[in-house]
Specification:
Number of domains: 3
Distance between the termini: 59 Å
Strand content: 15-25%
CATH class of the largest domain: Mainly Alpha
Radius of gyration: 25 Å
Oligomer: single chain
Number of strands: 23
CATH architecture of the largest domain: Orthogonal Bundle
Helix content: 25-40%
Structural class: alpha+beta
Number of helices: 13
CATH superfamily of the largest domain: Transferase(Phosphotransferase) domain 1
Shape: globular
Length: about 450
């Protein structure tokens, strides 16, 4: 990198006229370089464009984004344009990414090892954020490894490089996307990036996160790259002949043992509903881009369902999943832990409407579990599984809300569960949360 700016240099913000002081070079890409800087004593990130990228069109696009503001706080959105009176060109400031966030590339390279819960939380955050972006009439154009970050501990996400976001249907610039993430119709040159093609790129990103493999890179990749030149091979693999590696009706592109063992190992770990969603994304989602792709709201629901399905192995403590479809298919067979092959003994679970929440030692219920009006609300837990303070063999569900519950026990008794109190996890107990009722089952 050329390091266009030097520590100690200042640039001016366009609207407020405040001085922004460069502190440290952080990295760069094809459009420009990013620096740590301060403005009014507060840390920010500053992106400065290379001369070839500092076009009037890019400036106008940034001005629109600054005016619109971010869809939510997960986007490191352009805040103000910057310029330097003594030199040509321009840049912009944005929030600085906290050090606790890692790139998806770090996950792929094994530098971080998040839990399944953290991955599902990150998947939910990404789907929810892109839904909010698209709802504002915008498209991202370039969803990929390089612009998605997550906290491996909590699953919180950040979305970076938002200066290429465009108004959906008006993405006429030079951005097509990152190879391997572009929708097949974009690879073939039949479409420009849009909210519709973002859906395909999002599905690729999620598949990478959970399977650590590209959804279209199986044995066909080896043969195509062997036969074709390096420039033509990606067009065939991702555009002209895309086949999902786990397509139930076409086994021509299965993962290759010894080469893609990770995908082969992870695919059967996950419950059927997640595998079915990925299958739709890369079968119908390829053949019928307009109507077959998995939309963000479906991904949100699936990611929450995945969080709620987690159950811990009593032997090795590995996260497993309660999979209704698999249990029905082999009702007479014990469920084995994928990590140690020990038998999983399922704890009680809570059924609320059609949803099932496994009642682990660390389970939390959130507003969206007990109130259909509060979709995907993770603001504060309303209930938590806890252990009896004097008898470690008794577990209960503690009321963390500000409302009284009513518990209907299997023996016919009825009990009020005031805020701060717990109801034992007894099979057959029904709990009225106010706007929903759940039943404890096995």
């Amino acid at each position: 990198m050329t390091e266009l700016l030097k520590p100690g240099q200042t640039v001016q913000t366009q609207s407020s006229g405040m001085a922004c002081t460069v502190e440290q070079f952080l990295g760069g890409g094809g459009q420009g370089e990013v620096y740590r800087a301060t403005i009014g004593g507060a840390p920010v990130a500053l992106k400065w464009y290379f001369p070839h990228a500092a076009t009037p069109e890019q400036r106008r696009a940034l001005e629109i984004l600054v005016q619109k503001g971010p869809p939510n706080d997960r986007f490191l959105w352009p805040l103000e344009l910057t310029s330097m009176p003594s030199a040509p060109g321009f840049g912009y400031i944005m929030p600085l990414r906290d050090a606790r966030y890692s790139g998806i590339a770090d996950l792929m390279k094994g530098r971080v090892r998040p839990s399944f819960r953290a991955l599902a939380t990150a998947g939910f955050g990404l789907a929810h954020s892109y839904l909010q972006l698209h709802a504002r009439g915008l498209c991202y154009q370039d969803i990929s490894f390089g612009n998605a970050f997550f906290d491996p501990t909590t699953g919180d996400v950040l979305i970076c490089d938002n200066d290429n976001v465009a108004i959906d249907g008006q993405a006429n610039g030079g951005i097509l996307g990152t190879p391997g993430f572009m929708a097949p119709e974009v690879v073939r040159g039949e479409a420009r990036p849009s909210a519709q093609t973002d859906l395909f790129s999002l599905a690729v990103l999620l598949f990478y996160m959970f399977m650590l493999n590209h959804p279209l890179e199986g044995k066909k990749a080896e043969s195509i790259y062997y036969r074709d030149d390096l420039q033509e091979a990606p067009r065939r693999l991702y555009g002209e002949e895309p086949v999902f590696i786990f397509d139930p009706n076409d086994d021509s592109n299965r993962p290759v043992p010894g080469w893609q063992d990770v995908a082969l190992a992870y695919w059967p770990i996950y419950p059927q509903f997640l595998r079915d969603t990925f299958t739709q994304a890369f079968t119908a989602g390829i053949r019928n881009p307009q109507n077959g792709r998995v939309v963000e709201s479906i991904w949100r629901r699936v990611m929450i369902q995945l969080r709620d399905a987690i159950v811990y192995c009593p032997h090795c403590k590995a996260e497993n999943f309660h999979d209704v479809a698999a249990m029905r298919a082999s009702a007479d067979q014990p469920v084995r832990c994928w990590a140690c092959r020990g038998t999983i003994q399922f704890l009680p679970r809570l059924r609320i409407d059609k949803r099932i929440v496994m009642l682990n030692h660390d389970t939390r219920l959130y507003p969206h579990h007990v109130d259909s009006r509060r979709l995907f609300d993770f603001s504060q837990p309303v209930a938590a599984v806890n252990r009896h303070p004097t008898n470690p063999h008794i577990w209960g569900l503690k009321n963390l809300s500000g409302e009284k519950w009513v518990a209907f026990r299997a023996n016919g008794t009825v009990r009020d569960v005031e805020p701060g109190r717990s109801e034992p996890l007894a099979v057959g107990t029904r709990i009225n949360f106010g706007r929903a009722e759940g039943e404890i089952r096995v």
